[in-house]
TrEMBL record:
Single GO term (MF): magnesium ion binding
Protein name as catalogued: Cis-abienol synthase, chloroplastic-like
Species the sequence originates in: Nicotiana sylvestris (Wood tobacco)
Cofactor: Mg(2+)
SUPFAM superfamilies reported in the protein's UniProt record: Terpenoid cyclases/Protein prenyltransferases (SSF48239)
Length: 277
């Protein structure tokens, strides 16, 4: 479990976080460590944030992480841009929508609505991209409409990179003609802030921000020089930052890297003997 404090990442030992264990992983990417941002940097706020995370996650059993699974599901086949490379991830999304129309932690937590919104929107993008599951898409849209209040709610725990990744997914939804039931003024504000943040970071070459780029890289979308990103940050296992979502984004927006394909395929093979399509 990792607690993000502005530009610092503070590890919290697992034994301090209660009985957290992974749920079933069939056809899904396992839940990666959750990261949250604190709004203050004082010593007292650090301790308060740590305690908040312990209280939040101490009684939650983590499930397969739908956010990463959705990004992997959006990767097109190397042989046809009109076919998914990993249809088994799409199958998992279709089979694991929650009763309230969302995807994400099960059970959910009242302070983690932004995380549920991110996971749900990512799954909706995957379904809409491949034009399947219309009824599930509608249920997911209903969830977003009901819980859209949390997008700019400061009492909610803020996943690192949310300000860049969530509006990036909104922009991708527009490209897919997926009409999201969110306040247009809020959407415009988030998109403008995202563009300004990315523009400033690109001008500085992400100087001073590279320690955190792993938390929002998939949110850069087409604005990212993915070839350069791969050259600089690809790890020995073929991933970008050991993140299935970011590695999948590189293939969605760049499309040509055998090591990235190999990394995602190796993760899926850990749980089922799937071949790459």
């Amino acid at each position: 479990m990792i607690l993000g404090l502005r530009s610092k990442i503070i590890p919290l030992p697992d034994h301090k976080l209660g009985n957290i264990k992974l749920g079933s992983v069939t056809n899904a990417i396992c839940h990666k460590p959750c990261r949250v941002r604190c709004s203050h940097s004082t010593a007292s706020s650090m301790e308060e944030a740590k305690e908040r995370i312990r209280e939040t996650f101490g009684k939650i059993e983590l499930s397969p992480y739908s956010y990463d699974t959705a990004w992997v599901a959006m990767v097109p086949s190397r042989y046809s841009m009109n076919q998914p490379c990993f249809p088994q991830c799409l199958d998992w999304i279709l089979e694991n929508q929650k009763e309230d129309g969302s995807w994400g932690l099960n059970p959910s937590h009242p302070l983690l609505v932004k995380d549920s919104l991110s996971s749900t929107l990512a799954c909706l993008l995957a379904l809409r991209k491949w034009r399947i599951g219309d009824n599930k898409v509608q249920r997911g849209l209903d969830f977003i409409q009901t819980h859209g209040w949390a997008v700019d709610n400061e009492d909610q725990i803020l996943p690192l990179g949310f300000e860049i990744i969530f509006p990036s997914m909104i922009k991708y939804a527009e490209k897919l003609n997926l009409d999201l039931p969110l306040d247009p003024n809020l959407v415009n504000m988030m998109l403008c802030e995202r563009e300004l943040t990315i523009e400033r970071a690109l001008k500085k070459g992400f100087e001073g921000n590279m320690a955190n780029v792993e938390y929002f890289a998939e949110g850069l979308g087409e604005l990212c020089h993915w070839k350069e990103m791969i050259m600089l940050h690809q790890r020995h296992n073929g991933s970008l930052f050991d993140s299935p979502a970011t590695t999948a984004a590189a293939l969605i927006f760049h499309q040509h890297d055998e090591k990235c394909f190999g990394y995602l395929n190796s993760i899926l093979k850990l749980h089922e003997n799937w071949g790459m399509h």
